[in-house]
Write a structure and sequence with these properties.
The protein is α/β, with parallel strands linked by helices and 797 residues long. The chain has 6 domains: 108 residues, Roll (Archaeosine Trna-guanine Transglycosylase, Chain: A, domain 4), CATH 2.30.130.40; 85 residues, Methane Monooxygenase Hydroxylase, Chain G, domain 1; 60 residues; 178 residues, Rossmann fold; 66 residues, Helicase, Ruva Protein, domain 3; 184 residues, Ribosomal Protein S5, domain 2. The chain has a 5-stranded mixed barrel. The chain has a 5-stranded parallel sheet with strand order 8-9-12-7-13, with helices on both faces. Helix 25 crosses helix 28. The termini are far apart. The relative contact order is 0.05. Bound molecules: adenosine-5'-triphosphate. The site of adenosine-5'-triphosphate has 18 residues, from helix 13, helix 18 and helix 20. Adenosine-5'-triphosphate binds next to helix 13, helix 18 and helix 20.
Length: 797
């Protein structure tokens, strides 16, 4: 609905007629956001603020002009005079409309620039005394030249704009005044509000024309470029259309020659036969036949043809039929597990139990196994052995970094480049729907914004639902109930709760040096000999060399790097054999530095802990346990505690607790209590790039600080773990098995650990028990007695 000014006024009630009249040189001001009105230009303005509505209504009523001033900050809801630019445009209100939704619209026509001199009070809207600024009209030859140039530029820019109305060009061509031309061109250019305001504020006509001319030149450049890009895109499109056309013509020629039809008909017949043979369930076969009929009707040149064809290929190639299953032979399974893996007795026992349950109830709901452990401990190869023992196909599907539900469940076919998700892809790769499918890194399954992959995974693993698993691409159900799912993870706690509940967790904590030695001797060396084309009788790898590779060249929970280093050594031998060296090549420990370089992990512990203030702690990490050093130093100062080495909040608190405890025990330890106030203590945990957290280094922190303050170094054969309380009790911590394995790897022989962790060492390997002396801690005093050298460092030196 459009109303004229009088009606508009009736619509929005005026602010009152009994207002004092405005002084002659004053006008009502309407502040606007992010827009600039130029003289000579007509613009619509929507007004919402009460003050502005009152100003507009008063102007209409009194038949006076208004002043349009832009706010300095467009975001400001209730600007004050100080928040407005000083220079604006006096305008006539040519129309005032109140829309049915209650909004007020003005159409204003710019008349002349003005400068606000003073704001006045006494009206329910802004009123300012103003000074009008008219353009000077002298026309020097210079101004004339600029004028002509600007006119030419403005016309060129408008001609390049695809949607510019022709009246605009006429308007530009008919303007006679240089200042007005610059204003008009600036009004039509799509400039930032601040840029427009700057031009409005440029009173000098020559300078104004120069500014606008510069902006126009840039604009013309951009428009020309965009036109060029448009032309190129169109050419590319034409090319594609041409290709489609050619294809159609080719199909027509083939039809004429009776070729195309024949090959297409043959294709369709072959697909039809393949559908009949695929053993699809009825619903799937119906769908496949429907798609086949569609394909028959489609021209081969259409892009849909290729898509439908690919879809049919997927349906045909999926293993719908259940292969014949041989019953599991438990004795044989045991043999296979032993053949493929050294040690892991308890785990093999659980796998045999799992297979026995499968054997007794082949269609039953067997639990889903989840192998949790650091890399290279044999999770994948255990899965392969299970497949071998069950006489099934094996396939791995990686879930690490999957954030999108579609990666599991596929994209709908309408999506360009759609494919089935990785479960169905895995099934096709395995070629059997009763395969053993290993879902790797289930702990790294993300939850993203594109649907929840975890929910999709739950459905895949749920025996109640997975018989009718629906992949978005296939759009027909696929029976996953016969798939034997096995999952793997590095970190137990990162597996989403609901998924964890579905699975039976089997933890592999890593191997001791002796276990690694046996694995290498029996499996890895043989495998690497074969991989590098070397015969067993050509190389003799000494036991000592193997032990050195384990102890000095690798430090890992699993055996992956060990296998790699063995590979390097054997390749070295392979080169010598290839060069014609005769006789078996013997490799001893002494040869290793020449082949592998200097040892990577020397006895770091003894080196580091030789000075007071350093203690060896034990940490748990997702890739197994590791040792870490806590280093404390003291400088003259005033009692500050400095912590470095990327310590997490809990670990920082743990240092503070250790220090408080030490202050408390200062007397007992013979430390002068005053020394704390006179020194700054710096605690650093090296390997700064790795963030560290958790309370389990409490004992090590306390011992490091005690060692520092008593000047007694910590025994280099000892590592420790445990949380401490402020009262000096040692509290239990997690990851004991991994930590002990790490201690053994690092050559530690004594480990101090919380007495309340005794239950955690039940299934520690014989060998680790033999290597490590375990010292159980109830309170920190036990730790002090066991860890510190008896004599102060100075005295022993
Ligand atoms: N107990 C063992 N006996 C024999 N070989 C082993 C044993 N444990 C691991 N291996 C061998 O070590 C190599 C690495 O193991 P595998 O790839 O199964 O580790 P993984 O735990 O699956 O690691 P990731 O999590 O990185 O995939 C394999 O060649 C495997 O056969």
């Amino acid at each position: 609905m459009k109303l004229d000014a009088a009606q508009g006024e009736a619509g929005g009630r005026p602010a009152g007629n009994n207002l004092p009249p405005l002084p002659a040189d004053a006008i009502a001001i309407i502040p606007v956001r992010e827009m600039t009105l130029f003289p000579g230009v007509v613009l619509p303005v929507t007004v919402g603020r009460q003050r502005s509505i009152a100003a507009a209504q008063s102007a209409v009523r009194e038949q006076r002009q208004v002043g349009i001033l832009m706010q300095r900050d467009g975001e400001q809801a209730e600007p004050q005079p100080i928040d407005l630019h000083r220079i604006g445009t006096v305008a006539n209100v040519v129309r005032y409309v109140t829309a049915p939704d209650g909004t007020h619209h003005l159409v204003v026509q710019g008349d002349e620039r003005f400068q606000a001199v003073e704001f006045l009070s006494g009206w329910p809207f802004f009123v300012a005394r103003v000074q009008r600024v008219a353009d000077t009209e002298d026309r020097t030859p210079e101004i004339e030249a600029r004028f002509l140039n600007l006119q030419r530029q403005a016309v060129e820019a408008l001609e390049l704009l695809p949607q510019a109305p022709p009246e605009m060009i006429v308007a530009v061509q008919s303007v006679r005044s240089p200042g007005a031309l610059a204003d008009l061109a600036a009004a039509y250019l799509d400039l930032q509000p601040a840029e427009k305001q700057e031009i409005l504020e440029t009173i000098d006509v020559s300078a104004r024309m120069d500014k606008v001319s510069k902006l126009l030149a840039h604009r013309i450049e951009v428009l020309r470029l965009s036109q060029e890009i448009g032309r190129q895109t169109k050419a590319a499109l034409d090319e594609r259309q041409r290709e489609v056309l050619l294809r159609e013509q080719m199909a027509a020629i083939q039809r004429q020659l009776g070729e195309g039809e024949q090959s297409k008909a043959q294709d369709i017949a072959e697909l039809s036969e393949a559908i009949a043979k695929a053993g699809m369930p009825k619903e799937v076969e119906d769908q496949a036949r429907k798609e086949l009929r569609r394909l028959e009707r489609m021209p081969e040149a259409s892009p849909d043809y290729g898509m439908t064809r690919t879809y049919l290929d997927w349906l045909i190639e999926l293993p719908w039929k259940l292969p014949e299953e041989t019953p599991i032979d438990i004795k044989e399974a045991r043999k296979i597990l032993d053949e493929d893996h050294y040690g892991l007795d308890k785990i093999k026992r659980r796998i045999v139990e799992f297979l026995a349950v499968r054997k007794l109830a082949p269609g039953g709901k067997a639990p889903i196994l989840c192998f949790v452990g650091p890399p290279g401990v044999g999770k994948t190869s255990l899965g392969q052995s299970i497949a071998r023992a069950m006489n099934r196909k094996f396939v791995r599907v990686s879930l690490g970094g999957v954030h999108d539900e579609a990666e599991i469940r596929g994209h709908r076919r309408t999506y360009i480049g759609a494919l089935p998700g990785n479960i169905i892809q895995g099934i096709r790769k395995a070629g059997a729907r009763n395969c053993v499918m290993m879902l790797d890194e289930i702990d790294k399954l993300g939850s993203g914004i594109q649907g929840d992959p975890r929910a999709a995974m739950l459905e895949v693993l749920d025996p109640e639902q997975n018989a009718t698993f629906r992949d978005n691409y296939l759009a027909v159900p696929f029976d996953l109930s016969r798939v034997v799912f096995i999952t793997t993870a590095n970190v137990l706690d990162s597996i989403p709760g609901p998924l964890r509940d579905r699975m039976e967790i089997i933890q592999l904590s890593g191997y001791s040096a002796e276990e690694k030695f046996n694995i290498a001797k029996r499996y890895l060396v043989a495998r690497q000999l074969e991989a590098n084309g070397v015969k067993a009788e050509q190389v003799a790898l000494d036991d000592d060399a193997l032990r050195d590779i384990i102890g000095l060249y690798t430090r890992e929970a699993g055996v992956r790097n060990l296998e790699r280093e063995i590979g390097k050594v054997l390749r070295h031998a392979a080169v010598r054999i290839a060069e014609g060296e005769s006789g078996p090549i013997r490799i001893t420990a002494a040869d290793l530095p020449a082949i592998l370089g200097g040892p990577v992990f020397e006895s770091e512990v003894a080196m580091r802990t030789s000075v007071p203030g350093v203690a060896t702690g034990l940490a748990w990490t997702p890739v197994g346990g590791d040792i870490l050093f806590i280093e404390a130093t003291r400088n003259a100062g005033n009692g500050k505690l400095i912590l470095t080495g990327q310590l997490g909040e809990v670990m920082r608190e743990s240092v503070q607790a250790a220090l408080s405890l030490l202050k408390n025990r200062a007397g007992q330890l013979g430390i002068d209590a005053g020394v704390f106030e006179k020194s700054d203590i710096h605690v650093h945990v090296p390997a700064g790039a790795i963030p560290k957290d958790g309370p389990s280094a409490g004992v090590a922190m306390f011992i490091a600080l005690s060692s520092l303050m008593t000047d007694r170094s910590v025994r280099s054969d000892t590592a420790m773990t445990g949380e401490i309380s402020l009262r000096g009790l040692v509290l239990p911590v997690g990851g004991i098995k991994e930590k002990l394995a790490a201690a053994a790897r690092a050559g530690i022989t004594r480990v101090m650990l919380p007495a309340r962790n005794k239950k955690d060492i039940e299934d520690l390997s014989e060998e680790t028990r033999r290597q490590l002396e375990l010292i159980w801690l109830e309170k920190v005093e036990d730790a002090l007695a066991a860890a510190l050298d008896v004599q102060p460092a100075a005295a022993t030196a």
